[in-house]
Amino acid sequence: MTLADQPRTTFGNDDAKRVRADFPALDQEVNGHALVYLDSGATSQKPRAVLDVERHYYERQNAAVHRGAHTLAALATESYEQARHTVATFVGVDDDEIVWTSNATEAINLVAYGLSNASLGRGGPEADALRLTADSEIVITEGEHHSNLVPWQELAARTGATLRAIPLQDDGTLSLDDAERLVTDRTAIVAVTHVSNVTGVINPIAELVEIAHRHGALLLLDACQSAPHMPLDLHALDVDFAVFSGHKMLAPTGIGALYGRRALLNALPPFLTGGSMITTVTLEESGYLPAPQRFEAGTQRISQAIALAAATDYLGAIGMHDVAAWEHTLGERLLAGLLEIDGVRVLGPQTPEGRAGLVAFDLDGVHAHDVGQFLDDRGIAARVGHHCAQPLHRRFGVTASTRASTYVYNTFEDVDAFVDGVRDIRSFFGVV
User: Fold this and answer.
1) Which of 376, 388, 391, 398 is catalytic?
2) What per-residue confidence (pLDDT) applies to 124?
3) Is the confidence at residue 204, as pLDDT, over 50?
4) Is 224 a catalytic residue?
5) Would the pTM of this model clear 0.90, i.e. be above it?
6) How far is the C-alpha of 418 from the C-alpha of 114, rounded, in Å?
7) CA 403 to chain CA mean position, Å
8) In the chain, what are the domain boundaries?
9) CATH 3.40.640.10 fits 53-316, yes or no
10) 365-389 confidence digits (pLDDT tens)
């Protein structure tokens, strides 16, 4: 029996150690040291329960979904659609509001290109309200991942719309006064991350939704760093679209999801076209199915979707409130330890309030890549670079940083090993 099967009311270091035992990848040595994995913000490890579900699908149910009448096809289709129900329930939405994608990047592009198609006159009368013109504006923030920036640059280029960015304050947080100033009646869509993958800041989504909707704008939420780490109810948040990736939440690569309000999805012209998303096809024109199938052209990510559902079951059994609380505890310990080290400059808030369980920092006199190599020599996996957020790093006056990101399988010992490693780096490179 794994920890996820056991009832409990609190979660502590011993619980995290038992969770860790469910993850085969964590039971190994790197460079002669027990692996300390603090790069879950980039991609998470996978528990046996998830690996076993995907393997079972390939061994016992492998078939094309929504295409065959034989037994295996029926079983595969049932598992595939049950996975959609499971994931939809996990994020508080209806089944037909979840579209499978390869990842969150594809999901954002789906929305951006769908809006572009609507702006070109594609889609029926329902798509009229989704059209952007040269008078339209798209609002993002200075802290977005490139995946929630570049697609909007492209949409602006295709439609003539103006792209605006809400600036960050010195501590990496957003000013709602700036949001009020930049979101206007010309704004078509606001695209914002829920949790920064660099600063760990948890953005005030409820307030941003209210501002956007007051001006008749849509709001797209990048939930890549929130869906894996905290309770998420997208209906309650009242967002119009949201995206997240399976590989960051214990599931395989190659699976992500787009949430969209039912009416919006059914009005949005499709991004990819082909088989499985049509009603009728002639040599001259085609008709498209309602959402979500209208956005799922071609052979789908069947095993990955089923495994993502297993991952949400695993997280749900632990309890997302416990996951969030434990990661906050780890993040607080991580932040406190790093702030005690000479030469460390933490990017983002200097206190744990309103922060997720990750910390990025610059180490005076040592390039982030050298920091990463030093830590790797001790078996510690951390992320180095600009984390696909160059404008945010530019805002802080650095080109790269080192990031440690925690998950439910991390322990106090992991955090302490990381802090001890960072403490030794400057003396090793002779810059003290």
Assistant:
1) 388
2) 84
3) yes
4) no
5) yes
6) 43
7) 16
8) 3-44+319-428, 53-316
9) yes
10) 999 999 999 999 999 999 999 999 9
